[in-house]
């Protein structure tokens, strides 16, 4: 009896490839972008900002993070094939062409821009540098020792745009929250970079995990603490009360948990720390929301 030949594997649909391209099954990436943006929106509006602005910033965050993934994969396609974790990305394998990926990115960015157009002139103006930094970020890994700082600039722009949309201007509070949030991005994206440190060293990529070397764990812990300290200081005058300070305490407890995950520098521990980071942002957002709700 002849052995049966294996069933041919059906090619994946274009939609499945596009969903993989934008990391649809990995929401941690857009959640860490969403929570500080919504926190900024609540502070800017003095409480619930209304369904229109809420929808604009939730949808806009998801769309821009997805567009950023497309650009990142195009920029890194030659490097990603040498990294085990990224070798099967659609652009890297050729399942999605560079032109296709850039077209998807353009469509997503235009949809996000259309949403911003329904807000204010100030928000539209802020969206331009936000987009430029997002496009520029992937290329900084070739020459800049701390590309995670550039990502922090891009990922924190949602806060600035939230103030611009809600108030029609960008006050000092927005920039201070933006600056503080940059340190959170430095913390969790350095954890992410620690996962691929060996591969990045081999192929010549520059990351904060490589630059910080044996001080990586201490630096990440310091980044978390600086982030929380700046936000606590900036938001203290808003009198958000017990809910916000309880949230800060819970956030500090999560920092300790993250330290325990990354202190041995295991790939599994560092990747888990990165994936669970959104809970820290969610905790602070919940504290802000409850603080305003009880004030009202």
Question: Quick summary of this structure?
Answer:
This protein is mostly helical.
Descriptive report:
This protein has 296 residues and is an all-alpha fold. Helices cover 74% and strands 0% of the residues. The longest helix has 25 residues, at 51-75.
Largest sheet: none
The strand count comes to 0
Name the overall outline: globular
Helix content: over 70%
Assess the beta-strand content as a share of residues: under 5%
Query: How does the helix and strand content classify structurally?
Result: mainly alpha
Low-confidence stretches: 1-10
* H and E order: HHHHHHHHHHHHHHHH
Q: What is the overall pLDDT average?
A: 90
Q: Over all CA atoms, what is the radius of gyration?
A: 20 Å
Structure annotation, total helices: 16
Q: What's the end-to-end separation, in Å?
A: 78 Å
Descriptors for this entry?
mainly alpha; 296 residues; 0% strand
How are the elements arranged and paired?
Layout: H1 14-21, H2 28-45, H3 51-75, H4 77-80, H5 90-93, H6 98-116, H7 121-136, H8 147-155, H9 157-167, H10 172-195, H11 197-203, H12 208-212, H13 216-235, H14 241-262, H15 267-275, H16 278-295
């Amino acid at each position: 009896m002849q052995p049966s030949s294996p069933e041919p594997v059906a090619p994946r649909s274009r939609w499945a490839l596009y969903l993989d391209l934008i990391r649809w099954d990995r929401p941690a990436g857009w959640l860490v972008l969403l929570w500080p943006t919504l926190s900024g929106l609540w502070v800017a509006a003095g409480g619930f900002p209304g369904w229109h602005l809420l929808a604009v910033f939730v949808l806009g965050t998801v769309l821009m993070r997805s567009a950023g993934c497309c650009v990142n994969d195009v920029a890194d396609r030659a490097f990603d094939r040498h990294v085990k974790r990224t070798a099967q990305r659609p652009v890297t394998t050729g399942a999605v062409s560079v032109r296709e990926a850039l077209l998807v990115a353009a469509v997503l960015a235009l949809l996000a821009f259309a949403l911003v157009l329904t807000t204010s002139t100030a928000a539209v103006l802020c969206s331009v540098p936000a987009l430029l930094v997002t496009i520029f970020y992937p290329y900084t890994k070739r020459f800049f020792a701390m590309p995670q700082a550039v990502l922090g600039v891009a990922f924190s722009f949602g806060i600035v745009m939230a103030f611009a949309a809600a108030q029609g201007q960008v006050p000092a509070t927005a920039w201070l929250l933006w600056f503080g949030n940059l340190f959170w991005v430095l913390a969790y994206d350095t954890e992410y970079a620690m996962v691929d440190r060996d591969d990045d060293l081999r192929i010549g990529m520059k990351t904060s995990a490589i630059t910080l070397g044996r001080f990586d764990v201490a630096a990440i812990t310091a980044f978390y603490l600086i982030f929380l300290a700046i936000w606590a200081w900036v938001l203290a005058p808003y009198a958000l009360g017990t809910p916000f300070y309880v949230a800060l305490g819970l956030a500090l407890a999560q920092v300790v948990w993250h330290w325990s995950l990354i202190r041995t520098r295991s790939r599994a521990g560092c990747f888990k720390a990165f994936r669970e980071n959104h809970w820290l942002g969610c905790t602070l957002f919940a504290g802000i929301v409850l603080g305003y709700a009880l004030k009202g």
